[in-house]
Amino acid sequence: MSEYVPPDTPLEVLHEDHEIVVVDKPAGLLSVPGKGAHLADCLLARVQVAFPTALLVHRLDRDTSGVMVFGLTPHAQRHLGLQFEKRTTKKTYIARVSGRLEPKLGTVDLPLIVDWPNRPLQKVCSETGRQAVTDWRVMKASAQESRVKLMPKTGRSHQLRVHMLALGHPILGDPLYASGAAAAFPRMMLHSEELRLRHPDGGVGMKFRAAVPF
């Protein structure tokens, strides 16, 4: 991993009420603190400055940007956590990947497991991997790159990154899985554009979106 230099950007709140707060996470910022004082700056800590009762529900990778929800009460944290666990939330990501991804629509169904000698990398493993499923749709494509909409059905670590790599189209700027020209971008081109969930107070369906910054 490259040296940790978190972005100095103000907190962007997309929604707040008595139970939840939804923010647009910048790329390059950890979701939760890492080990050591130099990895203390993270989205959770920044959210808790403005919302002291904020509790973690889910994570995005350091180099992924986009929609993240936090519970403001233990009830909200449990309610939302169960939605992620039972896969009733709906997540949509936008990515720029290397090369022309074909066909226009498809599903990757490849089980994933941590690559122990090379952690935190993950790898495909049909014997001991955990089920991981991603739907994709190409929005536009050239010989050099494709812009794709990714809809994960499961929430494995690095799932979208490894699934795109497995198709032969790594996400541009990915510091772990891209190489050569595909790695030479100012950030990883992966953004959590939309999150759909049920509100912890009453269960009404809600949709949150964060504009794609690339």
Description:
- With 214 residues, the protein is an alpha+beta fold.
- 13% of the residues lie in helices and 32% in strands.
- The protein contains three helices and eleven strands; from the N terminus they run E-E-H-E-H-E-E-E-E-E-E-H-E-E.
- The chain has helices spanning 43-50, 74-85, 159-166; strands spanning 13-16, 20-25, 65-71, 90-98, 105-109, 112-114, 122-124, 133-141, 145-152, 190-198, 205-209.
- The strands form two sheets. Strands 1, 2, 3, 4, 5, 8, 9, 10 and 11 form a nine-stranded mixed sheet that branches. Strands 6-7 form a two-stranded antiparallel ribbon.
- The mean pLDDT is 97.
Write the topology of this structure.
Layout: E1 13-16, E2 20-25, H1 43-50, E3 65-71, H2 74-85, E4 90-98, E5 105-109, E6 112-114, E7 122-124, E8 133-141, E9 145-152, H3 159-166, E10 190-198, E11 205-209
Parallel strand pairs: 3-10
Antiparallel strand pairs: 1-2, 2-3, 4-9, 4-10, 5-8, 6-7, 8-9, 10-11
Question: What is the compact description of this entry?
Answer:
With about 210 residues, the protein is an alpha+beta fold. The protein has helices spanning about 45-50, 75-85, 160-165, and strands at about 15, 20-25, 65-70, 90-100, 105-110, 110-115, 120-125, 135-140, 145-150, 190-200, 205-210. The longest helix has 12 residues, at about 75-85.
The largest sheet, given as strand count, sense and whether it forms a barrel, is: 9 strands, mixed
Strand content: 25-35%
Radius of gyration: 17 Å
Helix content: 10-25%
Quantity of strands, as a count:
11
Q: Which regions have little confidence, pLDDT < 50, spanning 5+ residues?
A: none
